[in-house]
Write a structure and sequence with these properties.
Radius of gyration: 32 Å
Number of strands: 0
Strand content: under 5%
Order of helices and strands: HHHHHHHHH
Number of helices: 9
């Protein structure tokens, strides 16, 4: 054996590489992921998704048409109560709960009149919605043409709520 060989020692394995702290590349990937999630949330998360908007509008139209079909079998109190409830739901879906949920009586009718993009005269025609649900059963009679007029106005309001979004998407 040569003289220098006994002095050579065996090579031991390297220490394992720790997973923490990550390298600079992983920090950059994590930062990019956080920024991408924040950008997507700002872009899509804060505004109403078109499919969600279309869903409440389809539901409102379906319920109003159903009310029109069923009105012959219902008494006027029931029709007025259901129509009033549907109008309230449409208003809250379109403008938010804080703007209209607490309004009652003439304030509610005035609010409807001011916020209807179709320009229906709610002051003139919708006062019956305030009185009819609370009228005694024998006095509760509402003309069918008036009911149809109010349902048509509500349908126009739902349809008009789609127009500003379509115009905004078209860039008008």
């Amino acid at each position: 054996m040569p003289a220098g060989i006994p002095q050579i020692r065996d090579i031991h394995g390297l220490d394992p590489i720790s997973w923490w702290p990550p390298g600079p590349g992983w920090w950059l990937i994590g930062l990019a992921a956080i920024l991408a999630i924040a950008a997507l949330w700002l872009l899509f998360g804060r505004r109403e998704h078109p499919l969600v908007a279309a869903k409440w509008q389809r539901d409102a139209r379906r319920r109003l048409r159903s009310l029109r079909r069923r009105q012959a079998q219902m008494n006027s109190k029931e029709v007025a109560g259901e129509l009033s409830e549907l109008l309230r739901r449409i208003a809250m879906a379109r403008f938010g709960r804080t703007s209209c949920a607490g309004l009652v009586g003439e304030e509610w009718i005035t609010w409807l009149d001011e916020h209807d993009p179709a320009g229906f005269d709610w002051q003139r025609h919708a006062a019956v919605l305030l009185e009819m649900p609370y009228a005694p059963p024998d006095e509760a009679s509402m003309e069918r043409p008036l009911i149809n007029l109010l349902i048509d106005a509500a349908l126009a309001w739902v349809s008009a709520s789609e127009q500003p979004k379509k115009r905004a998407e078209a860039g008008v």
